[in-house]
Amino acid sequence: MARKINFNAGPAALPLPALERAAAEFLDFAGSGMSVMEHSHRGKEYEAVHDEATALVKELLNVPENYEVLFLQGGATALFAQIAMNFLEKDTTAQYVITGAWGEKALGEAKAVAAMFGANIAVQNVGTGEGKEKSYTRVPAPSEVKVDPAAAYLHVTSNETIHGVEFGVDPSRAFPETGGVPLVADMSSDFLWRPLDVSKFGILYAGAQKNIGPSGVVVVVISKALIEKGRKDIPKIWQFRIHAENKSLYNTPPTFGVYMIRNVLSWLKDQGGLAGMERINRKKADRLYGVIDGSNGFYRSPVEKESRSVMNVVFRLPSEALEEQFIAEAKKAGMVGLKGHRSVGGIRVSTYNAVSYDWVDTLSKFMEEFQKGK
Ligand SMILES: Cc1ncc(COP(=O)(O)O)c(C=O)c1O
Question: Is the shortest distance between the CB of 95 and ligand 1 below 6 Å?
Fold first, then answer.
């Protein structure tokens, strides 16, 4: 079997050992004579998987005692609405720092909730062209973010998957300092790429399908104090409190997705945990940006250097025709998933944890050769 070199943005490449483990256990999980998918979510076999996945998130990310780890459904998109539903009340304000298309989507859902509850949303748009997707090329320095001390929370998208701009890669682009205002971060495309000080955040959430597993699960790391503050008059299924009280087993969880997360995180631990992962991820990004910057303008990154993402490296070629040719030739060489998002075009290389340095090196050499041939 020839596996592809997969640079998909999500669902994305998963570590081969995690997939092989799933294959080996697929029909007969832990000698039970059943697939893990066939087990009750309340049985001891699944419970062990669920607990191990939760413990691995806590261990890898060094999650403080006063936080909960939840596995929910509906993707990060459901969380866009759920966060607003839990924490907005009449006459309160939530702040949204918008650095790309996913932040815009989060904002849209929050506005709908705010309208229902008589709450307000304050927006800081950090793009250069008033919300046009093409114009997002940077994240703000902490001093640029104006925090309202009375805000219910401040929301950021830590990595904009489409535009390739990310907080916290360069020290000058650290996450904003929000004081007592809970910082909420959509980390869908950069969850667990490196160690992080969780205590700076009120909520981290991430659709699993990029860095830690298959689609269908969203991981939420949330402070217990915020859980307590959440509204009690919304449907139970949307209350973080209910999911925390029930260990994410209030209703049937996506059991196979959680199982795959367990496999991926156990692999991640074997790679030296998040410190080991950060070293590899930075090396991959340096290799790619090195080719781009050394290409005399043949490859162009639209993103300001300090804001460049380690997870989604986006760039342009001199023409759309060359971009198409690049993608087609890369495909012939076994590399897939390089087409930029349809809203912005160009090339996007997603270099999540499961994407090896060797894959990135193969692509980098291909880029150098491709340029030489032009
Ligand atoms: C940063 C970010 N947030 C949110 C989403 C939406 O996630 P989902 O499709 O799981 O709802 C995506 C998906 O690509 C994303 O990249």
Answer: no
